[in-house]
Amino acid sequence: MIVAFTIAITAGRYTISFDNMIKAFTGQTIEDANVRTVLFNIRLPRAILAVIAGAGLAVAGAAFQSMFSNPLATPDTLGVATGASFGATLGIMLRLPALGIQMTAFIMGILSIILVYSISKVKGESSLVMLILAGMVISSLFEALVSLIKYVADPQDVLPEITYWLMGSLAGTGFNDLLVGTLPMIIGIIIIVGLRWKLNVLSLHEDEARAMGINLNFIRGLTIISSTMITASVIAMCGKVGWIGILIPHISRMIFGNNNKYVIPASLILGAAYLLLIDTIARSISAAELPISILTAIIGAPVFIILLRKTGGIKA
């Protein structure tokens, strides 16, 4: 991750040498005045966002895969990403400022999980199966609403902006954005990392967990809330970023086994490094910046296929 971070803040169409980077961080004199501007105003906040967002999506994916005992579970299993996407597209169509779009996306992401939980409750209780089914329903509903907004949006002005946002980008990030937008991600990451010793028991039956003195519903609820905070915040700030939440936990399990005590920290580090490298490639590969979701899919899908072929199927 440290190597990826160094590459992210020095590489690009405007290259910053390692020596100039050290001088900038230590306050030494630099001949080229543009170095500090590019480093501190553009690349450093963007790289920090990539670290937090990549780590958050990876640990949220690992937590959901453990909770649902499903290797295909992602941070969007319960429809949070589609709900947040609807909020953002609605904000763009209403021509809200950037902060307004982020807040709308975050609020709709939280609302989606509230709807999922409400729908999944049967006789006052909610099961994992009902959560998944409710998540599929809410996800489809919000996908339809996103399509509706794209259909009625101005094709000359608003629609291209919505389309580009949905493909994901870390461009335009500043330190003020980090202070506001990343706080829910950081809180969610801290909670999941703190729960990593207990995530191994999430797949147990209620009676087994009770016999071990574990409040299973509390841990599941805390995991869902934390993952929701992470996913909604990432969508609000970066747009839709795919594959990290499903690919990185699998790689972590290949290296460290199925114990979440090790999988969660490994996913955090690998997720951060992966999004850093993807974002660096996205803004450096051509004159026009590529959306990061395109690269995460182009790179992630073949890697995932290789993993499946190598292991003969990956178990959560």
Can you tell me about this structure?
- The protein is mainly α and 316 residues long.
- The chain contains 14 helices and 2 strands; from the N terminus they run αααααββααααααααα.
- It has helices at 2-10, 18-26, 34-68, 80-93, 98-120, 128-152, 158-166, 175-181, 183-194, 206-211, 216-238, 244-256, 260-284, 292-311; strands at residues 121-122, 125-126.
- α4 packs antiparallel against α5.
- The longest helix has 35 residues, at 34-68.
- The protein is globular.
- The mean pLDDT is 87.
Lay out the secondary structure.
Elements: H1 2-10, H2 18-26, H3 34-68, H4 80-93, H5 98-120, E1 121-122, E2 125-126, H6 128-152, H7 158-166, H8 175-181, H9 183-194, H10 206-211, H11 216-238, H12 244-256, H13 260-284, H14 292-311
Antiparallel strand pairs: 1-2
Helix pairs in contact: 1-3, 1-13, 3-9, 3-11, 3-12, 3-13, 4-5, 4-6, 4-7, 4-11, 5-6, 5-11, 9-11, 12-13, 12-14
| SSE topology string | HHHHHEEHHHHHHHHH
User: What's the count of strands?
Assistant: 2
| Helicity level | over 70%
Number of helices: 14
What are the segments in which pLDDT stays under 50 over at least 5 consecutive residues? none
In one word, what is the shape? globular
Mean pLDDT: 87
The largest β sheet comes out as: 2 strands, antiparallel
- N- and C-termini, Cα separation: 24 Å
Cα radius of gyration in angstroms = 20 Å
Quaternary structure of the protein: single chain
- Largest beta sheet: what is the strand line-up? 1-2
Category from helices, strands and their pairing: mainly alpha
In percent terms, what proportion of residues is strand? under 5%
